[in-house]
Amino acid sequence: MKLVLLGTGGFTPTEQAQTACFMLPEMGILLDAGTGLYRASSHLQTPDLDIYLSHAHGDHTSGLTYLFSAYFLDEINTLTQEVNEHTPAVAVEQANRRMHATRVHATQTALAELTPKFAPSQFDWRVLQTEERLPCGGKLTSFNLGHHDEVGFRLDWPGHSLAYVTDTIARPDAVYLEPIRGVDLLVHECNGPNRLAQMMTNIGHSYTAAVAEVAAQVEAKRLVLVHKCPVQEWSVDEDMESARVIFPAVEIGNDGMEIEF
Ligand SMILES: [Zn+2]
Ligand SMILES: [Zn+2]
């Protein structure tokens, strides 16, 4: 199973990282829809998509604006006929059809905020269920992260599992530890370094050691850190050596990375 990191930044896109968006191309699934979504066109393998949103903040949803263009580019790049004067109109029609067929799953609270904002796109909005069926016999479980309205996701297929947790404070007594126990791949936010631990906690985000400890505690097999802080001086690079002592299979996620799990 493949996960493509389309956007590994938090808050705002930078030269290094677009904001939160993660794609499972074979399954036609996106986790969050930050600005990294514009890159989805190069990875589309399915007619349309299921998009699961962790919450309504702009760095996780503003990329919905680019969904039409992603489908449009895919239509143009996969043309089976010679280009003619009707090509753009046909591609627009197809892209619109695919956009309207896209299921966007979010909590009631997030939907209340997002549906008026993206009304012109006419997505197929869905209230996120605690358990959702996925293609190829998989299932997605969503769970509250214990702060505001953010939810985390766990996706399971026979022999493959992935959990995505963002915009939360990693701590040993966090409420989401049981749902992610034993997961093959844990994609967890890590917004700042250990030296800014208190500041990260105050703003509702995680620092390196705490995330590594969570991964060790739930016995994840692999940990990828995302939701990079746009402030360069607050990068978590400086903590990687000490993080590996706590949890050896840890790495920083970068835009464009493709991970097999
Ligand atoms: Zn965020
Ligand atoms: Zn947020």
Structure description:
The protein has 261 residues and is an alpha/beta fold. The strands form 2 sheets. The protein has a 7-stranded mixed beta sheet with strand order 6-5-4-3-2-1-14. A 7-stranded mixed beta sheet has the order 7-8-9-10-11-12-13, covered by helices on one side. Helix 2 crosses helix 3 and helix 6 packs parallel to helix 7. The chain has one domain: Ribonuclease Z/Hydroxyacylglutathione hydrolase-like (Metallo-beta-lactamase, Chain A), CATH 3.60.15.10. The site of one zinc ion has 3 residues, from loops. One zinc ion (ZN) binds next to loops.
Structure summarized in a few sentences:
With 261 residues, this protein is of the alpha/beta class. It has one domain (2-260): Ribonuclease Z/Hydroxyacylglutathione hydrolase-like (Metallo-beta-lactamase, Chain A, 4-Layer Sandwich), CATH 3.60.15.10.
How would you summarize the topology of this molecule?
Blueprint: E1 2-7, E2 21-24, E3 29-31, E4 50-52, H1 58-61, H2 67-77, H3 87-100, E5 103-106, H4 108-117, E6 124-127, E7 131-134, E8 138-144, E9 151-157, E10 160-165, E11 185-189, H5 197-202, H6 208-217, E12 222-226, H7 240-246, E13 250-252, E14 258-260
Parallel strand pairs: 3-4, 4-5, 5-6, 10-11, 11-12, 12-13
Antiparallel strand pairs: 1-2, 1-14, 2-3, 7-8, 8-9, 9-10
Helix pairs in contact: 2-3, 6-7
One zinc ion binds at residues 10, 57, 59-60, 167, 227.
